[in-house]
Amino acid sequence: MNKDQDNFQMPEIDRVVHEPARLAILTVLSTCEEADFLFLERATKLSRGNLSVQLTRLENAGVIEIEKRIEHKRTLTTAKLTDRGRRTLNAYWESMKALRTAAEGRWTANAGSPKRSLPPRRCAPAEG
Amino acid sequence: MMQAATLKDASEQGQELRYLTAHFRDLQGLRMAPFWAALLVLTILEKAGSFSRGDLAWAAVVCTAAQFGWLRLSGRWYERHYGVVKEPEPPIRSGLISIMHPETRPTHASNRYYGYNSGIFAVLFLIWALTIVPGIFLGHNAQPGTFAMLVAAYQVVPRCFHPVTNNWSVFLRRVLAATALIAMLGIYLEYRLARMDLWVWMALLLSFLLLLDLYDHWLLNHLLGSDFTEGNHE
């Protein structure tokens, strides 16, 4: 293993985005202008309570906007990504891309070196 | 390697979510499936000799008119059962496409002429339909194959070019569409060159369209049934 890989710095990961449920929500919202609660619930397979909590957290972080309106005599709750949210998500994917490149490079280097028995580094679970 | 594989999995799941969201409307196969089914029944009745061509043309017009109502009803049904996704607005919206998807009305102030434009397109569309369509289906020089081929190309060709994910069911959608397109071209050439029976050709064409739309509806349910957030640490 060379010196560069020993000095490998973990890219800074945005924990608001990194949690899988919130990442799934943001991935959906990044592809459309807005989506309602029902679609998000079905697409992400989250329970209503969990989805509601995650949406509130994302809204509090300023990543999404939530709007409630009446349509066809029923309340429609829609969520959309803010400009800040879009920037945050792009930055997150950039850091993940860097991490992936680094992880693949590390594996290639390990495969070529006699010291292959390094244990995989465990990631600490995100808060929330 | 494990980290890279995990990241790859996350990336593929993200791709599926993006595909599902971007093609949410395309995958609503029940919007068009009843229309193809009704036309297929009419074609079979014509082949069986229960209808005259004139009756068939009128029945097709009634089905087409009913389809516009069904588009709205089925749109509401999908909204109630699957939710609402608002697509990013294209810079220029075709009036004809707006008529075909009446519930996707643009909301921005820049589209304040939407109603006016849609009205003009509707009148032009009706004039075109009343001038061209009866001649295609009736008379000695009837060429319904050309019209049907255009409809099939409008419905099937985009499915051959939509980007796909690593999910086998999404890839199968493209395979089915490409196969249907090749088969339809083959059948059309057979009809043109070898004078295959018109109604057999129409029935095959409508069967392909029906099958593709039913597959789309199944795919929507299949993708919504996949567990994208499996293993999340809530």
General description of the model:
The complex is a heterodimer of chains A (128) and B (234). With 128 residues, chain A is an alpha+beta fold. Chain A has a domain at 15-99: Orthogonal Bundle (Arc Repressor Mutant, subunit A). Chain A has six helices and three strands, in the order H-H-H-E-H-H-E-E-H. Chain A has helices at residues 3-6, 15-18, 20-31, 37-44, 48-60, 83-112, and strands at residues 34-36, 64-71, 74-81. In chain A, strands 1-3-2 form a three-stranded antiparallel beta sheet. Chain A is elongated, with a radius of gyration of 19 Å. The two termini of chain A are 36 Å apart. Chain B is an all-alpha fold. Chain B has one domain (18-225). Helix content of chain B is 73%, strand content 1%. Chain B has eight helices and one strand. Chain B has helices at residues 2-22, 33-48, 53-82, 95-100, 114-137, 144-161, 168-194, 198-225; one strand at residues 85-86. Chain B is globular. Mean pLDDT of chain B is 76; it is low at 228-234. Chains A and B meet through helix 3, strand 1, helix 4 and helix 6 of A and helix 1, helix 3 and strand 1 of B. Strand 1 of chain A pairs antiparallel with strand 1 (85-86) of chain B.
